Amino acid sequence: MPRYGFNLQWLFQRDRGVSDPDVKVLDAIAAWGFDFVRLPMDYRTWAVDGDPRRADEQVLGRIDAALEACRTRGLHLCLALHRTPGYCITGWESEPYDLWSDVRAQDDFVLTWERFATRYAVESREVLSFDLVNEPPELGLRGFTRDAHEAVVRRTVAAIRAISPGRPLVLDGLDGGNLAMPELADLGTTQSVRGYQPMRVSHSGAPWWPPAALLEPPAYPCSYDGQWWDRDALVEFYRPWRDLEASGVPVHVGEFGCYVETPDDIAQAWFTDLFSVFAEFGWGYALWEFEGDFGVVGHRRPGAVFEERDGFRVDVRLLDLLMGSRR
């Protein structure tokens, strides 16, 4: 899956509302030579009265519109369930049931993907893929196990393929996208890794992540989580994913980025190493995000350089790195 692009948050959080596709954003992504859009989704945006078995057709129509807008611009759209019935990496405790242990949640999860598989059954695999569940949890957290994850994934993959046999499917790594899953290598899916290590750089000051309050000030190279982080450490971190790839499983970086609180010179030093590693491996990627505190547009990292590009004030050094590391 050597595709390159951005995450877009039109269907990401219910309290933000549901947005129509921003064609100006898609035009810029295509004009800059990217070919991939990952669309994080919150099932509650279409669940009528909170019931995932009843879908609001008006919201689903917006997903249709996003797909059409991507198709006409030569962009591949990946639908990614960030909040799914029974699980979300942030806010899991607020779900009424548990995806990994409750049959009702698993039934609703499978039904959700069957709905999309049916709706887009004739759509080309070159245009559309499904990312089943964003960033499964840490092993052991609330009893989460590899076996429980594998059972849910295998059931869901089988259900989708019964309807749409050729649909490209993506599986995010465990522990927030960091752990590869060789036990699922036989499924014929892409596996999706994250590019946030070391989080002392990427998540400094992040208010939604409690450990951020305990971090030392951002630096790179740096010590974090009991080890030294530099380019060699990044290569070593991805070794299990390279081993997975060597067994025939495509790897894609579904998310990476740097929060606004990290000074730009530190962010640039880290990005330079990270992009060089991705380029060496030939991995595609999707920056989190196009516009916002992690974005190529709209962040406020101290020291960043911005220029006007296609109607946006763009972090040109980050954009140059994004464009220069594509295969």
Question: Would you mind describing this structure in some detail?
Answer:
This protein is an alpha/beta fold. It has a single domain (4-196, 236-324), classed as Glycosidases (TIM Barrel). The protein has 10 helices and 14 strands. The chain has helices at 23-31, 57-72, 103-119, 146-163, 174-177, 199-202, 231-237, 239-246, 264-281, 316-324, and strands at residues 4-7, 36-42, 47-48, 51-55, 76-83, 128-131, 169-172, 190-195, 222-224, 227-229, 251-256, 284-287, 306-309, 312-315. An 8-stranded parallel beta barrel has the order 1-2-5-6-7-8-11-12. Strands 3-4 form a two-stranded antiparallel sheet. Strand 11 (251-256), helix 9 and strand 12 (284-287) form a beta-alpha-beta unit. Helix 3 runs parallel beside helix 4 (146-163) and helix 9 (264-281) packs parallel to helix 10.
Q: Low-confidence segments, ≥5 residues, pLDDT <50?
A: none
C-alpha Rg (nearest Å): 19 Å
Structural class estimated from helices and strands: alpha/beta
The tally of strands reads: 14
- The share of residues in extended strands comes to 15-25%
Count structural domains: 1
Shape: globular
CATH topology (level 3) name: TIM Barrel
Largest sheet: 8 strands, parallel, barrel
**CATH homology-level superfamily:** Glycosidases
- What percent of the residues sit in helical stretches (DSSP H or I)? 25-40%
Average residue pLDDT: 95
Give the helix tally.
Answer: 10
- In order across it, which strands form the biggest sheet? 1-2-5-6-7-8-11-12
Kindly report how far apart the N and C termini lie.
11 Å
What is the H/E string?
EHEEEHEHEHEHEHEEHHEHEEEH
Query: Which second-level CATH architecture applies?
Result: Alpha-Beta Barrel
CATH class: Alpha Beta
